[in-house]
Design a protein that fits this description.
alpha+beta; 7-stranded mixed β-sheet; globular; disordered N terminus
């Protein structure tokens, strides 16, 4: 029956391939988890969060870019947000991470780019912060910049991301729908042997559980054995880590950014970040030796903002207690899993740097999912 379905859908592959460029997991009937999604099914469903991309596709060798995530539209340095970081596997360059872990707050946009342009991105974020109104006397800025290595499709040694490219991503960041796939920091990435990229998703808790929103955005560039909603897609396709010598290199990294409007501090944000990493595991990711896999989590709750120059030496506010965090944890797991799958479905075939990576073949994947009763 599976072979028959595959044959019929292969006849329709041109139509399916065209649709793949615009369709997300839920458009195919793949409903991951049990919690409802937000309006845009994106990290921007968390009130105030904005995302911006700068995509660099030039000639035959440049396939890279920048993605910026802003927790709120105000002056982040003057009104910091509680934040935390979890390193699933630390083979990466998450610049600025130690201060976030030490102080429990975030004072800059989160910027994602390629490995060798982290320094450029940091310089741009520092300049952006210093030039903001109200920061005239600032003498120290903790820029938080993450990366994955897109050197397979991109001339990474050329370090083609400029300071202006980073500023453009920050300054053009908006709410609403988030472009996914071969954009921004995901332009040249590879995931599970297929074209990776940017993906996003969200979950909205029912009022009985607080009504909070959890949003996730990912930059996927890692390996393993792909699973979609529990179905062993990588195994069925014969395309997975260690399936042959050509696919034996699974190093790459995954950056995960989690936002919520729930009033939780850095301690529980770290717990939330750890659960997001479980979402990566559910897609079949293995956090290989050379993969830098990080989760950055922050809360946008206004009552938890940390003033750079506080009026009082003490701060008192209401926090969500531990007993009410489990629903948030589930939301982070589900949204991370779906964001990663969305990055794969949104990506398109790409040639670059003398190589080519194919997108996830929807015409072959959907019959597999039907066979395992993942979609109807």
């Amino acid at each position: 029956m599976l072979r028959k379905t595959l044959f019929l859908l292969c006849l329709l592959s041109p139509q399916i391939g065209a649709a793949q460029k615009k369709m997300r997991a839920r458009d195919y009937g793949i409903n991951i988890g049990v919690l409802p999604v937000g309006l845009f099914n994106a990290i921007t469903d968390v009130p105030g969060v904005k995302v911006g991309h700068t995509t660099l596709i030039k000639g035959n060798h440049i396939r890279t870019g920048v993605t910026a995530i802003l927790p709120h539209s105000g002056n982040l340095f003057q009104q910091k947000v509680p934040a935390a970081i979890f390193a699933g596997n630390g083979f990466g360059k998450l610049a600025g991470s130690t201060q976030v872990m030490e102080l429990g707050n975030l004072e800059s946009p989160v910027v994602l780019t390629n490995t060798l342009n982290v320094a450029t991105a940091m310089d741009a974020v520092v300049g952006y912060t210093l030039q903001q109104k109200g920061n005239e006397k600032v003498q120290s800025v903790n820029a938080l910049v993450g990366e994955t290595n897109d050197g397979y499709l991109n001339d990474i040694r050329g370090r083609h991301v400029s300071r202006q490219d980073v500023l453009q991503a920050i300054q053009t960041a908006t709410g609403g729908n988030v472009t996914e796939g071969n954009v921004g920091a995901g332009t040249g990435t590879v995931c599970f042997g297929f074209k990776g990229g940017i993906g996003t998703s969200s979950r909205k808790l029912p009022k009985s559980m607080g009504g909070y929103t959890i949003g996730v955005i990912v930059q996927t560039n890692f390996g393993g054995v792909l699973q979609i909603a529990g179905a062993p897609v990588g195994k069925e396709l014969g395309t997975f880590t260690f399936s042959n010598q050509l696919l034996n290199n699974v190093d790459g990294s995954c950056m995960i950014v989690v936002a919520t409007d729930a009033p939780i501090d850095s301690r529980n944000l770290e717990r939330l970040a750890k659960r997001a990493f479980m979402g990566l595991a559910k897609t079949g990711g293995i956090a290989s030796n050379g993969s830098g896999d990080y989760v950055i989590a922050f809360s946008t709750a206004e009552q938890l903002r940390i003033a750079h120059s506080p009026a009082s030496p003490t701060q008192g506010t209401e926090l969500l207690t531990n007993d009410y965090t489990s629903a948030l944890f589930m939301g982070a797991i589900e949204a991370t899993e779906e964001a990663i799958i969305n990055s794969l479905f949104a990506a398109e075939n790409m040639k670059g740097n003398g190589k080519e990576v194919a997108a996830l073949p929807a015409d072959k994947v959907i019959p597999i999912l039907k066979h395992y009763n993942t979609v109807k």
